[in-house]
Design a protein that fits this description.
Helix 2 links the parallel strand 1 and strand 2. This protein is an alpha/beta fold. It is built from 13 helices and ten strands. The chain starts with 6 loop residues before the first helix and ends in a 7-residue tail after the last helix.
């Protein structure tokens, strides 16, 4: 295990140049607040005794919540945690993990497979996608733990009250059964042009983009990401491109269509460890193997909703989740 100075100091400097508010080398970012916690089912691991551990995450709501869950759990396991959550994007988190300047994060299987490992096609089967990523990343010094059920992949959503109006649609294969005028879509610009986006999705389900008997171009509206949810909710389109664990799905009473022909790659979140740290403290894996099964799509939608809609702090939401599950307790 490395001392608190050196690599960790460099990590703080890297993140400072990315615009995070930091108070100095060896100190934690201003976003590092988590509530004090009491003991729960997570107990200090043998041999840890305040050993340093650096946790990182990306800078969007779900990742911040997962990051704070990790900070609290690692503290309960006896580590002296440096909180480098809120890193500015996927690549900075990856760089921190590869260098060992961070030792734990939650990453999405599809992201690693497509963006980091450079594969051209994702794998829809969740178990197969995780196994492929785990096998490929070992040589990079990263160990993937058992994945959580949450699968933050792309999805198509419909407003719940319109389901019966659209013939009781519940599956994406039923899109081809709708009249052409009902095949209307709201998507963001990136999804409109991605190699795994709208056009190949439609083709996968037997519909041709731009064809008069498929999905005419006039049936597709391009929106900013947040506006997709609003436009789908207000009926500007029947089907909107969303992220499967977004809290706005619940807040706006949207329903996800089943991807029954398996187009979208799996994006399960899984704990990722710097291999040298896991070798030194193998009990760390047991901590997160117990937490992972509780991180379902529904659980993350509810937690994301509390932050994005109700205005709660990610650290407080993470704390309440761990207390509810008995992993930690009120101090």
């Amino acid at each position: 295990m490395r001392p608190a100075s050196g690599p960790r100091c460099r990590a703080v400097v890297v993140l400072a140049t990315a615009g995070l508010l930091l108070t100095g080398c060896g100190l934690q970012p201003a976003t590092s607040f988590v509530p004090a916690a009491g003991p729960g089912s997570i107990q200090p691991l043998d041999g840890v005794d305040g050993a340093p551990l650096t946790v990182t995450s990306k800078n969007f709501t779900e990742q911040l919540i997962l990051g704070k869950i990790s900070v609290l759990a690692a503290q309960a396991a006896g580590f002296d945690v440096t909180d480098l959550t809120n890193a500015p994007g996927s690549q900075p988190v990856r760089d921190l993990m590869l260098s060992g300047d961070a030792e734990f994060t939650w990453e999405y299987t599809g992201t690693a497979w497509l963006a980091f490992l450079g594969k051209e096609e994702g794998i829809a089967d969740q178990e197969e996608q995780w196994e492929a990523v785990r096998a490929a990343d070992v040589e990079n010094g990263l160990i993937w733990g058992e994945p959580a059920p949450l699968n933050n992949t792309y999805a198509m959503a419909v407003r719940t009250e319109a389901i019966e109006e659209l013939g009781g649609i519940t599956k994406m294969s039923q899109l081809a059964e709708l009249p052409v005028e009902e095949r209307t879509f709201c998507v963001e610009a990136e999804f409109n042009s991605r190699a795994d986006g709208l056009n190949p999705m439609l083709a996968h389900y037997g519909l041709e983009r731009g064809a008069p008997d498929g999905v005419p171009d006039g049936n597709v509206g391009i929106y900013d990401t947040g506006a997709v949810y609003t436009a789908t909710d207000n009926g500007s389109c029947n089907f909107g491109e969303v992220f499967a664990t977004d809290g706005r799905i619940q807040a706006l009473d949207l329903t996800l269509l089943e991807d029954d022909l398996g187009f979208f790659p799996a994006y399960n979140a899984a704990p990722v460890y710097y291999s040298e740290t896991l070798e030194e403290y193998p009990g760390l894996e047991d901590v997160f193997e117990r937490i992972a099964p509780e991180l379902t799509d529904d659980a993350l939608r509810k937690m994301n909703l509390l932050v994005d809609v109700e205005g709660e702090e990610p650290g407080d939401v993470a704390f309440d989740f761990l207390v509810e599950k008995g992993f930690i307790s009120q101090p």
